[in-house]
Amino acid sequence: QYLSVCQSKTAELFALAIEAPLRLSCALPEDLVEVRRRSINLGLIFQIKDDLADFSEVRLSERLFGRVFKNQQQAIDLVSRLSQEIVKPWSNSAYHMIFANLIDQF
């Protein structure tokens, strides 16, 4: 439930902010699908890291975040897996570079 909340608010906003200009510039449909997938992951990473910064170990267990992740390391491991997925090479090297640079900012 925590991840679906993150996806429906933060991750969707990230996807919209990144995807909208590409739609306006007539990007290829297959690139838009890949951009959206990676943007969602980027939004999830942002929200998880933000929540990790906000909550102490004690408060983690009291919140929805704590019901998904038993400890901070589980959340960090998910962030790592999502990050690897985002920077995985793909055929459009320009978009790949954008996401590689974005993930470095987090």
Can you put this structure into words, describing what you see?
The chain is mostly helical and 106 residues long. Helix content is 82%, strand content 0%. It contains six helices and no strands. It has helices at 2-24, 29-54, 57-60, 64-68, 72-87, 93-105. α2 packs antiparallel against α5 and α2 packs parallel to α6. The chain starts with a helix and ends with a helix. The model has no long low-confidence stretch (mean pLDDT 80).
Radius of gyration: 15 Å
> How much of the polypeptide forms β-strand, as a percent range?
under 5%
What does the largest sheet look like? none
Structural class: mainly alpha
Low-confidence stretches: none
Shape: elongated
Order of helices and strands: HHHHHH
Distance between the termini: 23 Å
- The total of beta strands comes to 0
Helix content: over 70%
Question: Can I get a quick summary?
Answer:
The protein has helices at 2-24, 29-54, 57-60, 64-68, 72-87, 93-105. With 106 residues, it is mainly α.
Itemize the secondary structure elements and their pairings.
Layout: H1 2-24, H2 29-54, H3 57-60, H4 64-68, H5 72-87, H6 93-105
Summary keywords:
82% helix, 6 helices, 106 residues, mainly alpha
